[in-house]
Automatic annotation (TrEMBL):
Belongs to the peptidase M28 family. M28B subfamily. GO terms for molecular function: carboxypeptidase activity. It comes from the Eukaryota. The lineage of its organism: Eukaryota, Fungi, Dikarya, Ascomycota, Saccharomycotina. InterPro entries: PA_dom_sf (IPR046450), Peptidase_M28 (IPR007484), Peptidase_M28B (IPR039373), TFR-like_dimer_dom (IPR007365), TFR-like_dimer_dom_sf (IPR036757). Residues 694-821 form the Transferrin receptor-like dimerisation domain. SUPFAM superfamilies: PA domain (SSF52025), Transferrin receptor-like dimerisation domain (SSF47672), Zn-dependent exopeptidases (SSF53187). Residues 1-15 have a biased composition (Polar residues). This is CIC11C00000005947. Residues 431-574 form the Peptidase M28 domain. Residues 1-23 are annotated as: Disordered. It comes from Sungouiella intermedia.
Length: 827
């Protein structure tokens, strides 16, 4: 019997029942038996254990296996903690869905064919959804009324967009940009100018301007030479200091842009001619003092542009002109050693490259210097007031008396003059053009333009204007990023080079892009001299009147401005306070600025805004950033106000669905301009002792017809706004077509007042019959006449040709009637 059987049998009681308690075991016997078991096989070899041996733990499982087990653990845990409870909650929902779905299907069956009924319900759902979406867009967001699925897409709430602009205008960035842009000399075409243009280009790119074009153009440029230029008395007793400061760096040297050099030394008598006005030359004539073959001393300033003075001196036979710079109180000091550098190219005949008057420098070759009608034919150079006083006193008390102890002299004292300028007949200049494309009428756009070059450092002039242009770029691109906004029509930002050289940058760009600008542009805003005083100055085309008045009311005054008068709150209040409680804006855009080509060649409505009123050291190295901070807007608060105003006006022009051109204001102002024209012509008739009679009845009737006809466009704008507000904000396709056609008419109406392309105006750059600069207009707004109106009529009146005055008045009347009949209609 086996041992197992013996144990099993021994554990049973005689009756075959299990014992009440387990049997007791004999440990000794068990060990003996166990010994038998373990010794029944071969002997086990004994090993000695080395206690000094290093213990090695078992190897860890591989990373893959551990990741597998961790993932499986996470899945089981997630299932237990989240999956199972979620299933408990969703099961009743699913049962409820099945219940309602069954009820829904039964209801559909009761209505009719399930397929048809379901489609009708789907269509109803889509219609309701579209309605709710359009209503939500029209309520609280920056998205305004919708153009509808069949029209132009959405319109934007211009007021809400404009109200967010101010938060993007920063005094710090304006100040930093002015400081950098005036940190080095940057005459056109120099390395400093190239550094500035690259800075502007990079700024455009960094702020997200979509399209940035770098335009290289050619133009005549000249630079002063420190060797070989002098002005001294023939007896050697005095020599003028022809530099500002002690060093002879180019930016400090005396010279006039676009002036020729002398052909060898000029040794001639000199005559003082005061401001070089027509009346001043008349005094010389009465005193018997001849200017033929003489060197003329002429003061900067007066009501005649410097280039016109040079032309008059040339016609009278003078050999050269020396300009006397004024004194100036600047940065807490009086300066009598300032030397101003002023362009002497004949801008009133044509702007742009002086060797390519009226055509692009890239199209055909340049003209000879002597044959060009806009080059100065005699050399010129500026000197300081301090040196000018010495030369005037040398003349004694002889000749014509100009008051204040200054006499013309009788030709008894002589000067030696030698001018050596470095000239470049074709030198590269650079414009930078950035643009934000429009979403509806991308081919149409407005232009912000700023001069970039300077004859010194240009802190208060070109640097301030360029910094403002950059800030405008930042404002509009910030609106894009925040609201995913694109203007209805395009916006262009242009940094112009060679403004100090007869407006070469803007003039040549316009000549090269004439066709595109003629077809695509409709407004120009000049960005220059933003804060050179405290007098808010607004020069504008009448088409902008209502827009400017409206936006002025939305810009708050600074605390300092509020102190001028109680109860003033906005720029509109300040403007009225500073201008005799009137809100009449001047249209005298006659300064040598980059709006000149746009007005006189394209008849663009233009705008020039800034705080003005103080004399500034224009074209002098005194116009540095350090002096700017001491003398002008160091807090940048006035800059911020002008940036906001320009941005608001630009936004309205680019975004308003119906162009905000004020034809009612234009018609009213044209009637006022006609009265001023009549006054000017009568003055000229009296001056020439003429008995001419000029009839204005045809012009008056045409202006009245113009006002009545263009009232239709004004009414259309009003009715369109009321319709959009009163409906579900959906613009029908036909109404959208009428709106676009009305915009086109308003843009194209201005071009009817330009001379035909095949005609040749008496002045190569001046084609505008309605607005533009007469030849004899002052270089600033003198408040005497509305100079920037009826330029051709005024030109003929100033020469005494009153027969042509009548012809041009009647011609203009015919154009006004034709324009009002063709372009005032709304299709």
């Amino acid at each position: 019997m086996s041992r197992y059987q013996q144990l099993h049998s021994g554990s049973q009681n005689p009756g075959g029942q299990m014992p009440a308690f387990p049997p007791a075991y004999d440990d000794s016997g068990a060990l003996e038996n166990a010994g038998d078991v373990f010794t029944s096989g071969p002997p086990i070899e004994q090993f000695e254990i080395d206690e000094d041996e290093v213990y090695e733990p078992p190897k860890r499982e591989s990373l893959v296996k551990r990741a597998f087990f961790a993932t499986r653990t996470f899945v089981y845990t997630f299932k237990d903690n989240f999956g199972v409870p979620l299933s408990r909650y969703l099961d009743p929902v699913y049962e409820g869905y099945n219940y309602f779905n069954m009820k829904y299907e039964l209801s559909i069956l009761k209505l009719g064919n399930p397929l048809v009924v379901k489609r009708l319900i789907y269509v109803l759902f889509v219609i309701v959804l579209m309605y709710l979406v359009t209503r939500s867009e029209n309520s609280d967001g920056v998205n305004g009324a919708s153009g509808g699925a069949f029209s132009t897409g959405k319109f934007y709430d211009v007021d809400m967009l404009a109200d967010t602009m101010k938060q993007y205008i920063e005094a710090a960035s304006l100040k930093e940009n002015i400081e950098y842009l005036s940190s080095m000399p940057h005459m056109a075409g120099t390395t400093g100018d190239l550094a500035m243009v690259r800075y502007v280009e990079t700024y455009f790119h960094n702020n997200g301007v979509q399209q940035v074009d770098f335009h290289e153009l050619d133009s005549f440029l000249n630079y002063p030479d420190k060797e070989g230029t002098y002005v001294k008395l023939s007896d050697g007793s005095f020599s003028a200091t022809l530099s500002e400061g002690s060093d002879k760096n180019m930016q400090n040297l005396a010279f006039n842009p676009t002036s020729p050099s002398t052909n060898g030394e000029i040794d001639a008598r000199y005559v003082y001619v005061n401001y070089g006005e027509m009346e001043d030359f008349g005094r010389l004539d009465k005193a018997g003092v001849s200017v033929k073959d003489a060197i003329l001393l002429i003061r900067y300033g007066g009501v005649t542009p410097e280039s016109n003075k040079v032309y008059a001196a040339t016609q009278l036979g003078a050999k050269a002109v020396i300009f006397i710079s004024p004194t100036i109180e600047w940065a807490g000091e009086k300066h009598d050693d300032m030397i101003q550098r002023v362009n002497v190219g004949h801008t009133r005949v044509c702007y742009g490259d002086v060797l390519t008057p009226g055509w692009s420098s890239h199209s055909i070759g340049s003209a000879n210097w002597e044959k060009s009608e806009i080059t100065a034919k005699i050399p010129t150079i500026p000197i300081s007031w301090k040196d000018g006083e010495v030369l005037v006193k040398k003349l004694g008390n002889s000749g014509a008396d100009f008051g204040e102890g200054r006499f013309s002299g009788d030709g008894a004292v002589s000067l030696k003059l030698n001018i050596l300028n470095k000239k470049r007949n074709t030198h590269v200049i650079w414009n930078v053009v950035g643009s934000i494309s429009g979403r509806e009428q991308a081919g149409k756009g407005i232009i912000f333009g700023a001069a970039r070059d300077s004859l010194g450092y240009g802190a208060s002039t070109s640097a301030s204007g360029t910094a403002t242009l950059l800030e405008l770029v930042k404002v509009f691109t910030s609106l894009q990023r925040r609201y995913d906004w694109y203007p209805s029509r395009s916006i262009y930002f242009v940094s112009f080079d060679a403004t100090e050289y007869n407006l070469a940058g803007s003039g040549e760009w316009l000549e090269e892009k004439r066709k595109q600008l003629f077809e695509g542009g409709y407004a120009y805003i000049d960005v220059s001299e933003i804060a050179t005083g405290d007098l808010l100055t607004i020069l504008t085309n009448p088409m902008f009147l209502s827009t400017i008045r409206e936006e002025l009311r939305k810009i708050s005054l600074t605390e300092e401005q509020k102190k001028q008068k109680s109860n003033m709150a906005t720029l509109y209040d300040l403007y009225k306070f500073q201008h005799g409680d009137k809100d009449i804006f001047s249209n005298n855009l006659v300064e040598y600025k980059n709006y000149i080509p746009f007005i006189n060649r394209l008849n663009y409505p233009c705008l020039d805004v800034g705080f003005r009123g103080k004399p500034i050291p224009r074209g002098s190295t005194l116009d540095s950033f350090g002096n700017f901070v001491k003398e002008l807007d160091s807090s940048m608060l006035e800059h911020i106000q002008i940036v906001e105003l320009l941005a608001r006006v630009g936004l309205r022009l680019a975004e308003d669905p119906v162009l905000p051109f004020d034809f009612i204001g234009l018609a009213s102002d044209l009637l006022r301009y006609q009265q001023d024209l009549e006054k000017y012509v009568n003055e000229q008739i009296s001056f020439f002792s003429s008995n001419a009679q000029v009839d204005y009845s045809k012009l008056k009737n045409a202006l009245e017809s113009f006002r009545q006809n263009f009232r239709q466009l004004h009414e259309f704008r009003t009715h369109w706004k009321e319709f959009i507000k009163s409906t579900s904000s959906m613009e029908p396709a036909m109404l959208a077509g009428s709106r676009k056609a009305a915009n086109e008419n308003m843009m194209n109406a201005a071009f009817t007042f330009l001379m035909r392309q095949d005609s040749q105006p008496s002045r190569a750059g001046y084609f505008n019959l309605l607005f533009g600069t007469p030849y004899n207009a002052p270089p600033f707004d003198d408040g005497v006449h509305e100079w920037n109106t009826f330029p051709v009529v005024r030109d003929f009146a100033s020469t005494g040709d009153f027969r042509k005055v009548q012809i041009e008045i009647d011609r203009l009347a015919d154009i006004l009637i034709t324009t009002s009949e063709e372009y005032s209609q709304v299709p």
